[in-house]
Each structure stands twice: as C-alpha cells, then as structure tokens.
Amino acid sequence: MYIIVVGVGRLGYYLTKALLDEGHEVLAIEKDATICEAVTDELGSVCIRGDGCETATLNEVGTGRADMLIAVTGDDEDNLVACQVAKHKFNVPFTIARIRNPQNETIFKKLGIDATVSSTNIILEYIEQEVPTHPLMHLLTIRDKGMEIVEVKIPPESTTVGKPVKELSLPPESKLSLIIRKHQKPLIPRANTILQAEDQIIAVTTPESEDELKAALRGA
Amino acid sequence: MKVVIMGCGRVGAQLASLLDADGHQVTVLDKNDYSFRRLPPTFNGTALLGNGIDQEVLKKAGIEEADAFFVLTEGDNRNVMAAQIAKHIFNVPRVICRIYDPLRQELYQTLGLEAISPTTVFAQLLKERLES
Fold first, then answer.
1. CB-based burial label for B103 (10 Å; 0-12, 13-18, 19+)
2. Is A75 touching B (CB cutoff 8 A)?
3. Would you say domain A2-120 falls under CATH 3.40.50.720?
4. Contact B51/A at CB under 8 A
5. CATH code given to domain A129-218
6. A109 touches chain B (CB under 8 A)
7. ipTM associated with this complex
8. Of A103, A48, A56, which is closest to residue A80 (Cα–Cα)?
9. pTM for the whole thing?
10. Contacts of residue A88 in chain B, CB cutoff 8 Å?
11. Which of A55, A77, A88 sits opposite B77 (nearest CB)?
C-alpha cells in the first residue's frame, strides 16, 4: 500500500518506521526542516518538507495514487483538514485522523473522516476494563453501523434483580444478546429470563441510548 | 439577529462593533483575552474567552440559537473546522468563514461552505485599481 503520514512528531516517526518495516511504501510530510533532515538521515528519503494541508504539497507527493492518509499532527484541526483535502481533492479511499479532544470523534465522522484515533479514549477504555466497579463497559464499536457491544453488570442491590427481561424498559435501539452467570453456561436472554445478582449482560446498543440501557438494566 | 463571531482580530472586532451598532446581539469569541482590547468601549455585546473548535465553547457562546456565525481567526484550518461544526452539527443558518489559502477556499466552497479568501479578493482589487 502507498501510505502518506502527515506530521512527524514522536507518533508520526514510529508510525512511519513501523509501516516501512511492514513493507509499505510510506511518505511522511513534515513542516519542520530539522525534523525532516533527521528522519531522512535515519530512515532514508521518506520525508518531505511541507504543509500536509496544502493541495500543492499533497499534489507533489502523488496523493492521487495513495491508498491511505494518516494525519497525526498535534492539532485536531490540522488533522481534519489534511484528511478532508486528501479525500475530496485526491479521492484517497481511507483517511485516519489523530484527535486530542475525544468529542471530535463524532464530529470528524460526520465530516467524512474514515477513522479517528484518540489516545484519551484508548486510555479511558483500558481504565473501564480494569476497574471492575464500572457499570458499563465498551467491548466493541461497530463504527459504520453506529452500534456498539457493551457489558453491563448487575449489582446485588439492583432493583431489577428477580425481574424477568420482559419487564425491563429497554430503549428500542438496544438488544440483550447474552447473559453470563457464575458456574453456568452463557445463556441467551428470553422474555421470561429472570435477572440475577452478579449477572454480566452483553448487549448491542447505540452510544446515545447507553445511559438509558444502563438505567433499565440496573434499576434505580 | 443573534450573531457569533470567532476571532477578535482587527476584522472580527470591526465587524462586531458594526453589527453591535446596528442593534444585533453579538458574541465575540477569542482564545486570548488581550484581543478584546480591540472592541470599542461602546460595545454592548458579549466577549467570551475560549477556543471555538471546541463544541462546548461554541455552545457557551450561544451557537445553538445563533442566526449567523462568522469565523475569522488567523488559522485557516481552525476556521474550516469551526465553520463545519457550526454548519453540520449545530445547523446554524448562515456560516461565513475566512480562508487565506485560495486553494483551500476553493475546495471548501465546493464542499458547501461559504468561504472567502482575502488573498484572492485583495489581489483582484489591486489588479483592478491598476487597470482603472
């Protein structure tokens, strides 16, 4: 694949290196001349000096034939524009933007960026999975469908313990897929399945109805 | 009209005071409060400190009720991002943004943004001056 990396900070540098090691054709674009020289010294002529948001620079590096553009500068707005120019001017099939503000994930998606990477979110997800008291855990995001798979734990004091599934007021976008119980085989929830304390419930939902689902499953 | 202006530079401050004098409800946003010195003492609107590419800040500036949004910071990319958030996330009826780079201005114009490149406009103006 021909991959263009915009921004050679520490992240951009190791990304370029790793992609080269995997045998891809990689070109990095960096504004700073000193960084550019350092990269060229170490990795060969894979870095050009320029502004990755400018059509002229992207034209020069043959963005028209690129399979992917990854924008990893430190500024969300620069990453957005680099990806949008690549997408709309050069028809690059896949663009990835690094984001600092986790809220930009939905905005960038709406503005046509194929994927975003947020270190803030990645760290938060790890914390969620490591801290067992967290009521709702994100297991998987199905990005193109706007759905996600989550796990909700039912604490013993929950008012829904002892209630059948059909009595829960679940949001319409959510579906319970599986119940994991201690010392039992996982079971598929039916209308009459009674919730028990410590149940782990795997559900499909949308990010918007997450809170409603959590409330429906755990009660007041 | 309720108007939000992002960037209180010379143009932003000038526009704010013109619209304010016309009786519009104006909020000016800048990430540096030193910029607000450019607003005249008679300015009746609101000056708000914050970065407009953050949607929380835009909400605080009243973007949800705004009839118009002008994006006039020094950074083209910041302007492009804020303008798109206002247009596509908050559905502001009128969004006008400045993009210095003529090529980017052209691209975002075709993508539906009302974008003005002062570079193009001023160069054209100078050329016309010479020819007249």
1. middle
2. yes
3. yes
4. no
5. 3.30.70.1450
6. no
7. 0.89
8. A103
9. 0.78
10. 107, 110-111
11. A77
